[in-house]
Write a structure and sequence with these properties.
The complex is a heterodimer of chains A (221) and B (294). Chain A is built from eight helices and nine strands. Chain A is elongated, with a radius of gyration of 22 Å. Chain A starts with a strand and ends in a 33-residue tail after the last helix. Chain B has 294 residues and is α/β, with parallel strands linked by helices. Helices cover 40% and strands 15% of the residues of chain B. Chain B has an eight-stranded parallel barrel with strand order 1-2-3-4-5-6-7-8, surrounded by six helices. The longest helix of chain B is centred in the C-terminal third of the chain and has 18 residues. Chain B starts with a helix and ends with a helix. The relative contact order of chain B is 0.13. The chains are: A alpha/beta (221), B alpha/beta (294). Chains A and B meet through helix 8 of A and helix 5 and helix 6 of B.
Amino acid sequence: MIRSITRQKSMEEIERLLGDYTRVFIIGCGTCVTLCRTGGLPEVLQMKEQLEAANRLVTGYLILPVACDEITQEILAANQSVISEAQALLIMTCAFGVQTVATRMETTVIPALDTLFIGKERGLGEFHEVCTQCGTCIIGETGGICPVTTCHKGLVNGPCGGTKDGKCEIDPQKDCAWTLIYQRLKGLGNIDLMRRYQGPRNHQVVPHPGAFSVPREERSI
Amino acid sequence: MAISFKETLASGKFVVTSEVGPPKGTNLEKTIHHIALLKDCVDAINLTDHQSSVMRYPSLGGALLVKEQGGEPILQMTCRDRNRLALQADLLFAYSRGIQNVLCLTGDSVVVGDHKEAKGVFDLDSSQLLATIRILEQGKDLGGNDLDGAVSFCAGAIVTPEANPLEPQLIKFEKKIEAGAEFIQTQAVYDLDKFRDFMSYARQFPVKILAGIILLTSAPMARYMNKNVPGVRVPQSLIDEMATAPKGSALAKGIEIAGRMIREIREKKICDGVHVMAIGKEEIVPEILKEAGL
């Protein structure tokens, strides 16, 4: 399952963003941020305590099941009157959730988290960035390991000179993507794939911001 | 007028290059001094490009200083800070100002430097930059458009002969040659037997190899490099030799070792030349070369 990986902003920044708003409603999410321990019920309750200790009035809180889902608008509508008592909504979801709420509510929204990357869960509480949605997938030639994402520099023609004993120059704990790819291709007997020159990448496959529409006639299930 | 580096490479003589790091700021006095010291005792001078991702005066500016003093510059270009438009533009500019040699590098991560929050660009990589040079030489740019006035460069790249694992590094080395590298500067080598093994492989390619020589300044410095610098392995025997140097003469010992290595590489014709890096101690390079009998 892919997850939106988040980290809580410093309380100093959250306090600065909240500014003069004294009545705050907190919104968490039951999906990715619950798994990341950044915006589930325990974290929301902890935030409530911290805000109250800083003399703010928490008018209520809500854990959306999946904040980025369209169902959020119905939940927000059902709780409209309670939520609207607050001057600001402190959103402890990823930026997808924050923006979903922001488009549905007239109240000021303030993100409590920073969204770091879209990660794949490898084990309980272990998340790794394996795809950055570049639009030019080359993993058919790299043993199913993405160098655009896994290599710190996104190199597509082999390792840089910074690789050391199979690790990356920026972090001795981080695997060198090209060592992984090399080992994988060697195991598959496909090492010649590494010899193929990869031309400059197309960074404008889908100019940002991306948008995609399924043709109307294909939308029915 | 200096002999072009391309001519030097073709002459078959033992090639000697060194490098100068441009200053952190606009005071060029020291850089000009280093260039003056080096320009007549080496065949070409590399100008480092924000080495170790530390922001400095640009390598282009340094290369122009070398030209102004009648030396032969090798412009180091990394892919870290410029996208393909900026890299091509700088190549056009360099050529228009008489810079004829480029060393194509991927570049260190910004994370290791002094602007840790900067965006690392890496729109191109080192082999793509080499290929770009060859395209610009055909009078075209990477967008397929015609140039009004092309370029012509002697292009080089680097290799780490003691990388672990080695094979991916060698595959990349071969890609760089296929992309157009005419000369290769190696990461520092200290174990000449191992380097001979690398050369017996590398000799099959139509490329000149310059062995990287980094001046050892102390035993702790050698240990530090072993621990922290990718692809650098100083053998224990050399560390011991540095450690047993009398107090205050470690640098002299380092000069002796570097000179000895260069002499052996040249006399035994192990490779085509050397690239001497005396990081931060450029003024020592003439002494090293004297020690090497050059």
